[in-house]
């Protein structure tokens, strides 16, 4: 059996990738792991349920969207801008690693244990904060909004409460995300 | 002189018309299928053995699904029904003496279920399928009555209906009944087998399948000329379940009987209201009743010993650009769960290569599922299907039209004639 390939070009973590020949039906998760050696996004269920595999995709106007890489073909990402969990932290002038505010909050709250689900939670929380920057949420609705945004992420070590508190506290501490 | 005669005639016609309307309104033309025999109250022993039977009859007639609100008290009503005339609420049929039917006599119960006239001559709205239950046997209605009386009384008041004038006048239903109620109850067709007749009884009287699968006329009555030929309910198509319709969807009688039991088949999983029907009703039906239903729907006197699936529709040619776009979208967004060849993943995602919604004349059900998704669902026997995501933000009308055309042509044997505008209407 021959696998039909198609050239694929996209931007991953700020770097242009490709064009590279990629099988038509290859899932994005496999492309990230096998072609780019970016193994941070986790294969959990492979069925679109656990959300351990999600990455950020920049949409129109720069709004961020969370996509499950286990059930989305690599070619769907053609021409798009993707951020995997490897793309959140930066190096500062001295070459030291600076975590993203979400990553930092998870560490401070001891949110994760084994860490398998963490790339997905980092993605989900980052997308939520991006959304609130565009459209702040009323204080009274904040708990609900955080729950809904993280709800789809499964953590087998059941760190849900700490993940929730970390994200909520970060939102409260970041100016402009909460109205009223 | 001439003028006077004319005037008099006109007055007479108007008066006669008013008299007819009046007599319809006051129920003079209403027919009852309830016999005098039910005026005798049932004895305690009778009630006891009838109640046991009634548990099954009530399940087959699916009473619970409508008479229990989501997260509400069992049998206490409250489930809303959106109709073109306003919202109706199902009533409390627990045996509470004040709010339920605890104070109803056997005869009053019979009249409400089969004539649509409740205690105190109050007309029921036909959201209660009395037009179908009219064909229920006296014994089955007794059984449900006895069974309901063994349930726990729920002190839950009935919710007021929110209907516009004149539909808020219950008595006006005499007109509806005049046009939409059969005069007689169930009649056995001696030319057909026992299974066929039982099947018709389960389909028409208990299961009240026609309430959704038969299109409605202007008066919202079941259109007898299009019996079971399919209708749109709450934006979803309740498909044609005549033998032609079922065959087009890929069913044979034995597969259909199993589908009603399990909610799953190669043709897809039960969704929307049919998911609830399986959940509350058909999964508990006896093998005999399910097979009888299948025999009747396929118009057979006896079922074949082994399933003989109808041939799959032949794929249809699609213009190259549509095929390229449709197939590309399929591989990118669908194949992850439904497989590159539409084979699905057991217990996770249904196969699409044999899916019924791709074979229907209208793309409605398929397009709606893609746009709005389907929640995760549990099926009998620890079976389940995972949630189908909503793709409304990820697919524009053009992309979805191409996907729809390509999939329907490939697996449904349907011409690629779905337009972007048609897709837009389903958003
Ligand atoms: S691995 Fe993608 S959702 Fe579980
Ligand atoms: S930290 Fe172990 S799965 Fe979430």
UniProtKB/TrEMBL annotation, chain A:
InterPro entries: 2Fe-2S-bd, 2Fe-2S-bd_dom_sf, 2Fe-2S_ferredoxin-like_sf, 2Fe-2S_ferredoxin-type, Aldehyde_Oxdr_Iron-Sulfur, Beta-grasp_dom_sf. Residues 6-88 form the 2Fe-2S ferredoxin-type domain. GO terms for molecular function: 2 iron, 2 sulfur cluster binding; metal ion binding; oxidoreductase activity, acting on the aldehyde or oxo group of donors. It holds the Pfam family Fer2_2. It comes from the Bacteria. This is (2Fe-2S)-binding protein. It comes from Bosea spartocytisi.
